[in-house]
Design brief:
The chain contains 20 helices and 23 strands.
Length: 584
């Protein structure tokens, strides 16, 4: 059975394909369009997936859409009835978007130049949060687990809890819009001066610079309930519009201000662009992060005790909060936690396909998905052809020679763009599309921000560590394949790796497995052999854009920044190789 999963007309549009139960490819449309969180119809992603599987469009049995406009339909009607006037613009936007979602067959017919009848009885809609749950549980190796999805809102749910058992997800609880942890976090993200869709990670980065002085005040805004769930005091949010995302003609998701005047009265007016970040802002960020952690752990502890399950599968946008993820094993009775590489809405396509093949079709489950490398890949020949077209000199080397050149460059204070193998699925660079630096340097952050990133000073850089050395450097030893958790770095190790140690002594690690990331693991091992440090500083290969996808993107990023070296498979380019007069 051949299944294409699709997240369309929604932020982080994407596609994934499974052939006879096995994942073949998955990719976000933003990697092609070069627009962050692109939200249209993922035509290029779908085409890429079908081509990677080597199938004709007629051979695809099902196209599964990660959205069901009819889910909780009665509850939606009741909500609109209670908020008739303030919801008119929102209703129009949602109806227009829902109409686009139901026209998938037309989009596919246009994309593949086929009759619309080609797709008769092949299109299936799956509820948003069920896709999130499936993306975690059916990709794990757990036979049984508690499954939790938490985000801003999707198909009128904001949180969904299920018991996963073999080939079945049994929904046991859900929270309806507008009560939402994601909405709460986004409102304060906006108040702190970060208005763009997806800026929440900046608040998480700010939090360690402050003290959680406003937790008691925030408990009036977001309250935990005795039934293991939570609720918002809606007086603090704009009535009827809270949490609603709109999509421009350019398919860029935008989110209107969510906070009410009452929230501004208590916590201050929103910080404007260019205004300084003060200690108050840091303290508020710390408080928002603290209350979010407490709420999530409240949910997890309640349902762990209720079900007795010790395996946890976690997904949804809020599940990208790597700080709270790193505290689950030490603050709950869960023994194992699985979070997919694309826990955000990009993973909806992936989860939709998994839900169909396991929950509905009862196909046998496969091995756990522990690799995020499901995207584009390019051969040495393709790379050389592009470099020749651009008139850029290069050196072709063996991988052992590449490892040696790169590590010497890093040790000398250089910065390297590293493109190897298939691109990653999800928001994290995991050694396939990464920018690398020496974690021992106290000035690494300044070097990276000066040469490439030009981002806020409070945002940390991540350590990629050889899996076998995690316990030597971190207080917890767990597999973290997708950089989805933050752990405390052992006190005696922090001075050795200052570039990847956050101000609170933590690091958002990636544990690098030789069987999954062969060349990246060997590169880090080479660095270890020379320095005694089994870690590289890893940040995403981009400059205020989506992570690079192909050699053109990598070369362009290299040229317009001050990286010292670019490696694409076995091809090495240095700044000396650049002949700018020949670059098209």
């Amino acid at each position: 059975m051949n299944i294409v999963g699709i997240n369309a007309f929604h932020a982080d549009a994407s596609a994934a394909i499974f052939v006879n139960g096995k994942l073949i490819a998955a990719i976000e449309e933003e990697r092609f369009t070069r627009v962050k969180h692109w939200s249209g119809f993922p035509a290029q992603s779908i085409q890429f997936c079908v081509e990677e599987a080597g199938l004709s469009i007629e051979e695809i049995d099902f196209f599964v859409i990660g959205r069901d406009p009819y889910a909780k339909f009665l509850k939606k009607i009741l909500y609109v009835a209670k908020n008739p006037l303030v919801n008119i613009p929102a209703i129009k936007d949602r109806l227009f978007n829902a109409k686009k979602t139901t026209s998938i067959d037309e989009e596919l017919a246009l994309l593949f130049n086929k009759s619309i009848t080609t797709f008769n009885n092949k299109i299936i809609n799956i509820e948003h949060h069920k896709c999130h749950l499936a993306s975690a549980f059916f990709a794990s190796d757990f036979e049984k687990a508690l499954c939790v999805s938490i985000d801003g809102s999707g198909d009128f749910s904001t949180t969904m809890i299920a018991i996963g058992n073999k080939n079945d997800l049994e929904i046991i609880e859900s929270v309806d819009f507008p009560h939402s942890i994601g909405l709460f976090y986004t409102a304060f993200t906006q108040l702190l001066g970060f208005p763009n869709y997806g800026d929440e990670y900046k608040v998480m980065g700010m939090a360690p610079y402050g003290s959680p002085l406003y937790v008691n005040d925030l408990k009036k805004v977001l309250r935990c309930k005795q039934n293991g769930l939570f609720e918002l005091d809606l007086q603090f949010f704009r009535k009827g519009t809270a949490g609603l995302v709109s999509y421009s003609e350019n398919n860029i998701p935008t989110i209107q201000p969510l906070y009410s005047k009452k929230l501004e009265k208590i916590f201050g007016t929103a910080r404007k662009a260019g205004e300084p970040i003060t200690s108050f802002h840091n303290d508020l960020a710390a408080s928002v992060q603290k209350i979010t952690e407490e709420t999530i752990l409240h949910i997890l502890n309640f349902y762990q005790k209720k079900t007795g399950l010790t395996n946890l599968c976690l997904a949804g946008g809020v599940a990208q909060n790597s700080v709270v993820n790193g505290k689950i094993s030490s603050h709950t009775n869960f023994k194992q936690v699985y979070i997919p590489s694309a826990g955000s809405d990009a993973g909806i396509s992936f989860g939709a396909a998994l839900y169909l093949q396991h929950q509905i079709k009862k196909m046998p489950r496969q091995k756990a998905i522990l690799s995020a490398y499901t995207g584009s890949k390019f051969s040495n020949e393709q790379i050389i052809s592009i470099l020749n077209e651009k008139g850029i000199g290069f050196i072709q080397l063996s991988f052992n020679e590449i490892y040696d050149h790169v590590t010497n460059c890093l040790i000398d204070g250089g910065v390297v763009g590293w493109m190897n193998g298939r691109s990653e699925f999800g928001p994290r660079a995991l050694g396939a599309r990464s920018i690398l630096a020496d974690p021992r340097r106290t000035d690494a952050k300044e070097i990276l921000n000066a040469k490439i990133k030009r981002r806020e000073s409070f945002r940390p850089f991540a350590p990629s560590i050889l899996k076998e050395y995690v316990s030597e450097y971190f207080e917890l030893e767990e597999p973290v394949p997708f950089m989805e958790k933050v752990f405390v770095i052992k006190a005696e190790k922090r001075s050795l790796i200052p570039a990847v140690t956050h101000i609170d002594g933590t690091g958002r690690l990636q544990s690098v497995d030789a069987t999954v990331s062969t060349h990246y693991h060997q590169l880090i091992k080479t660095f270890y052999n020379k320095t005694g440090i089994p870690i590289l500083l890893n940040t995403s290969f981009n400059e205020n854009e989506p992570i690079v996808n192909n050699p053109h993107h990598a070369i362009d990023c290299f040229i317009r920044t001050n990286m010292d070296m670019l490696v694409m498979e076995n091809i090495l380019v240095t700044r000396k190789n650049l002949s700018l007069s020949k670059i098209s």
